[in-house]
Amino acid sequence: MKAFVLTGIRAMECREVPEPEIQRPTDVLLRMACIGVCGSDVHYYTTGRIGSQVVQYPFAVGHEGAAVVEAVGDAVTRVKPGDRVAVEPAMSCGNCDQCNCGRPHTCRHLGFLGTPGQAEGCLSERIVMPETSCFPVADSISMERAALVEPLSIGIYAVQLAGDLNVDSRIGILGSGPIGLSVLYAARDAGLQHLYVTDKIDRRLEAARSAGASWTGNPDKTDIVNDILAVEPSALDVVIECCGQQDALDQGIELLKPGGKLVLVGIPRVDRISFSVDRLRRREICIQNVRRQNHCVEPAIELLEHVGDVDPGRMITHRFPFAETQQAFDIVDRYEEGVIKAMITFD
Question: Which helix (H) or strand (E) holds 187?
Fold first, then answer.
């Protein structure tokens, strides 16, 4: 079986690796169909780490996937051979205090695809996952759209954590890459209308406008704080930061009204970020971190089943065969060719 593995900084190889085998009665053998390239995958590719999670080479990344079931363990009831599934990359224990209080995404013993020290990723022809990570999708959802379920579930969860929002809420989304667009799709699906989106890449702003953003701006070309506050002098209720950049965090604080909430989704490449404590304290700003997603996979599938004018599949701008996986990573790393979401596909 072939798999792409990281072998060093900005280095990867296609290697022959052992076929995975069903070992537990709840295991499912999956044949991968599509894999989305995520920014966190690229972090490992370019730096070899995210925070304390350091790659030990060789290592396969990849966690956004759609697959076809090839075989199942004796106790599997959710899926059967031939089913098309979206893959939930998180594998929780189901027994710790976090799992028992409804927080499996912060499980004390969590395993996550493509995370050093936890699990090899899905950049291979086949993988084995627990049945709890396999979610059937309708034939009306293409496999590449099914591979978007993971980022879409994060967008849905971020909007949930933003609080009690309504059609009059004013929302900022800073960064309109795949995660920012996923937040935008989720916000639109929730009926939110006043959506202010920023990015430094104009093609991504075009995608945001197509997805229903009410205002877009490029912080390299304009003062987005002044421009947004000129439209919304009372400032915004919530800002959802999706790019992990210090300047965006600073802008987010300035854009929030007193009592507003800053929701952090983006993963910074640095170990520390900073805030103006004076601005936070005087405005009583709440900071909410987002850790992946919690019970939002099925809502993401439902969003894809009932797309209207706003189709999340439009964020897929580039497609690569499995043999060209490194080219896909390089294009995403360099933001070349107006890339938003690169998808790796298998024949």
Answer: helix 178-189
